User: Fold this.
Amino acid sequence: MQQADNLGAIPGVDHGFCSINDPQRPADVFICKQVHSASVIEWQAGQVSNTVEADGVCTGEHHPIAVITADCLPILIASKNAEKVAAVHGGWKGLQAGIVANAIQRFAAEGIAIDQLRIAIGPSIKPCCYEVSGEFITRFQADQGHLWRDGQAPWSHVQPASLLRPDIAPPDARQTGSAWFDLSGFGVLLLQAAGVRREQIEVSEVCTYCTSPTFASYRRRTHYPEEMKTLIYSWIARITG
Assistant:
C-alpha cells in the first residue's frame, strides 16, 4: 500500500492507494457506481456501495470512502483539521466536465478555506504511456485551452521518458499525428484553477502502465489481454481518537 506524505501528516486522517484485495484497506468502505461524471455526493449512512451513480464522495463522518481506478486519477482530499475528506475518480471525461471544482466546492460550502486543503493524486497512467489521437487534442484544446493559455499544455508530441524506472516497456506510438497526454498534469491545472496552490498537491510518480505489473492499467491490459483484470483502490477516512 502506498501513502502520500501530505495526507499522512494530518492527525485524524488515514488513507492509502492499494490493490483491491490489499488486507490493509478498510473492510467496510463506500464507493460510488462510477460513470465518468462530474457528480460528487455526500456519504450517507445506509447507502450501498456501487449503487449510487457519482464519481466523487465526501464525508465529515467516520466512515471510509474510496474510488477505484485502472489508469484514471485517484484524487484524495482532506482538510488540515481532519473535519472533512473526499475521494474523487478523475478520468478525462469527468475532469473535463468539472468534477474537481465540484469536489472543492463541497469543502467551501462548509466554510473550509481552500488553503486548508491537502490533496494527493495517486498512481495513474503517465504521459510516457498515454497516447491520444490528434483529433482528441484538437477537441481538448478548443474546450480546455484557457487553462494553459500562458503556460504548457498537458501533452507533448514527443513521447516523454518514464518518471520512474519502468518494469514494463512503455508502448510504442500506434497512431499517426498522436500526442502523449499528461492526465495528472491536467488534474493539477484544474486544481489550481479552483484556487489550490501547487504546494498543497502531492502527485505520485507511479505510472500504472509501466512502473509495475502489480498496478492496474486498463490500457496495458488492452495491449496484453492475457493479464488478469485488477483495480487500484484509493481510500481515505477520518479516524476516531
